[in-house]
Structures
1.
Amino acid sequence: MANQDQQAPLLQLQDLTVEIIGGARRHAVHGVSFEVRANEVVCVVGESGSGKSITAHAVMGLLPVGQVRVTGGRILFQGQDVVRLSPDAHRRLRGTRMAMIFQEPMTALNPIMRVGAQVEEVLELHTRMSAGERRARVLELFRAVLLPNPEQLVRAYPFELSGGQRQRIMIAMALALEPDLLIADEPTTALDVTTQAQILHLIRDLQRRLGIGVLFITHDFGVVAELADRIVVMRHGDVVEQAAAQELLQSPQHPYTRSLLAAVPHLPAEKSPGQFGRVLLRAAALSKVYAGHGKRPVRALHEVTLTLHAGETVGIVGESGSGKSTLGRTVVGLHAPDAGSLRLNEGELLGLRAREARRHRKDIQMVFQDPYASLNPRHRVGDAIAQGPIAFGVPPADANRRARELLELVGLDAGAADRYPHQFSGGQRQRIGIARALALEPKLLVADEAVSALDVSIQAQILELLAQIRRRLELSMLFITHDLRVAAQICDRIAVMRHGEIVEIGHASDIFLRPEHPYTRQLIEAIPGKGWTKPVPQLPERLGGEHAGLLNADIR
């Protein structure tokens, strides 16, 4: 790695402007200036559409040709303006002195190429190492990023690895040539809290050990509190605030920054358990095994027993593979268990004939993790919401009128019924998914990772929306998530799952403040920024001036 003058910035953005050719908003990035020095981590924070990822892609020279272009300012890397480099020169720079970790490794890795060969390919293109030296270097990198059994993993394909392992492969690939600058674009957003903690620790350890500069892009202030030396806050393509990490986290100056900080899920305070009605849902000894095709069978559920009362929200928390989504899909009827009993209002749901099962289906509805994937892109959202009631005999005119009422209930305009899914933001699509689930007037709502992919501010809106709807409609809810902070915001009780079993269940504040199982304590300890005390205790009811309504939807 090249020796850097510790006083000189490694990367400088000077009045950078990036234009979207033919876009509704002309400038994706406008007048952005900040710097990254060697041996420091600079976190760029903002919601989707703030311009943070486009800024990173501009630095790397990865803007899509003919769609997005730099139209002003400079990007100085080690004193050289990379905007003026030819594509070949920028490619050589990317391969040796700057590298990037992408948000979704499954899309960044070649699915039909072994992961060891993909890392080795970087060395083959940019070094004169022999085949033996390249293989030895790949194993060395895999050990450096703490991958288990590197000798076996080099022969694995991406689909055979967990999300955390795939992200470690991406980090190994990025570090293969010991770059001076590492750019990480939301590398932990979709990971479990324990895996996230491992990746953050790994990046910080590598940064300190190698003395590199890190530009870390995220929307999670918990991650920022854990990692950042300095923070840059972006909104609508502009930098609205930047400062040293401790200064900004404790004394934010801009209203937008304060609102982002206020939206971060907080740990629950002590509170007394709520009073609820009769038992609505009763699961007894549910078990489910997925038979492997030539591989070892996977025990997804093992004698899971759970009750849910009318008006109560129970959180199901655990890492990927814990069985929480299988449990949710079993309750909805998308999976059939191998054993056990599932009763709604004391009526058995399992083993019913199709016609009998259909009568109960409207009473249990689901909000999926990815609303875009669950909405038909060729159907207007009003039609998507009305389809369920129409299928159960409601006249189309009444169903369509109800669809518009539901859109208003979830904080959207009734006119949104005439638009298509792609015309909405991620948070708006999730509201549409909630409206569709409510169309059949269910008694129980199952929300499967319904906010995990959303910005922290949008996440706060959806959590508040779900809480309001539950109170207004007296709904029960099964809330599935891998984030204990999120569960604490909305759940009355929390069940912690691991390897298909419920290892602990209790009142939400008890789970946080007095966890009994070692695994629960491990999950809590891994929460990013757990030791950081937020300067603003709750989300402001309304932002004034140009920020009015920024983080709070008008929920009617």
2.
Amino acid sequence: MSQTPFALPPRLLSLAAAAAFGSALCAQALQPPPVPAGNPITPAKTVLGKILFWEEQMSSNNRVSCGTCHKTEIGGGDNRRAPHPGADGIQPSPDDTTGSPGVPNSRVDNTYEPDALFGLGDQVTNRASPSFLTGGYFPELFWDGRARAQFIDPETGTVRLVTGGALESQAVGPVLSDVEMAHDLRTWGEVRTKLRDARPMALATNVPPDMQAAIAANPSYPLLFTAAFGDSTISAERIALAIATYERSLVPDQTPWDQFQRGVPGALTQGQINGMNGFNGPARCNLCHVAPLFSDRQFRNLGLRPIAQDLGRQGVTGNVVDGGRFKVPSLRNAGLRGTFMHTGQFTSLNQVIGFYIGGGGPNQVNKDQLLQPLQPPPPPQAVADLIDFVSNALTDPRVRNRQFPFDRPTLASERIPPQGFTYGLGTAGSGGVIPTVLAAVPANIGNVDFKVGIGAARGGAPAVLAVGTAAALPGTTFANVNLNIALPELSQIPVLLEGPAGQAGRGFGTILFPLPPEPLLIGGTLFVQWFVVDAGAVFGAASSRGSELRFF
């Protein structure tokens, strides 16, 4: 790409030349991130943080961990693209974004309540998940930098780290977020109690060896916290310190580019060298994506969307000059990602490069002046070389292959379908709507947050959750209503549904089932199905599909 005959606008020539020259002189392989004096790295704290990062029991529905939205092999991001309708609540519309699915909306008592935008489905964040793999190198985190360098203990309000604590500040946010991991008004006391009684990694399979060894030596969270901190106290502060320590141990410094900087022969192909030269030269990518982190750690407005749709950095600082600015992410392992930009609107590096070749987005208010169309545009081979460099030369193979320290367990949410193990047919009620069984919460023994819900039923109607020990044969009916559990039922649990009385599809309800820590339950299965007394149904009743509750 260095031979590509396209030039910069004259007013940017000196800046680009200085940046390219500085990059050539100062580039070096990535070094470990800075560590705040108040949170030194120790092996016991690192492995505790790793366990907590991948622990789905940190959420209030046992389906979301930090790692659910930040998977290593996806470049530290999320491969579950989900639409967010934006402030107007209309989809599709111009203010739509792509984010990460979190938890269904639940009240303070953890019972379901439909959300205005997402109903009883998983709520979705309004920004795409950024990579966590290089978080330790940034002075402030989240797309808008609201996770500050000063870490304040969220339980006591005291300053725990004066500086260098952005990772700690970030770690405590999602755990109590009623979109990402929590029911409404969840407290750290609830999190602490749940972890105290939980079996570490009870939901996961394929647990990495270092995590297995730590749990074998200390098979409870009080013991794991004792190993890491000297006593068994579980607190928000210690959770943050441990997770941040784990994240600082993840240094993706084995990319081909790093090996090239170390003088390893053949570390980069000729095409990747051409792409690197274009990156540092006529394409001027390095003006914002500065080696070796491949980010300048600044906040910039790319003109992606009107500022009114998302204030970005301005929402944190209150400064109008920060309107629409978002963190410049590291490009390390970007080739593994399937979502780009804070809006998640691009799905390939080819789209991203095309966006920059055209000079960025169309919204000019506060748009960064460095974004200028490349004239003349680079030829196809130059673009291919640039993509090869970013996609492959900046990818650490250990990240791509989930090798230590970037290994991870298989999560329960990757094994249990979004609506649970449903089967059979339901029976339509008022308005021709079939009630929905909400049985996605994992049935692990000791799960204090286990619950089964119903949605899309007749509002205000009486309903029954029938529980059986076997599934009915396909096609079984009773009084012309589809039956999915074998008779006789083990039990029937009555509920008066909430929602506007008589309205089709607006009724909902929840039954909470705290599961005892009884090992004899492991491997057992129960079958459940909802039945609704519905005056608007053809035969006076509606039913949901069946669902298997598989205990483990």
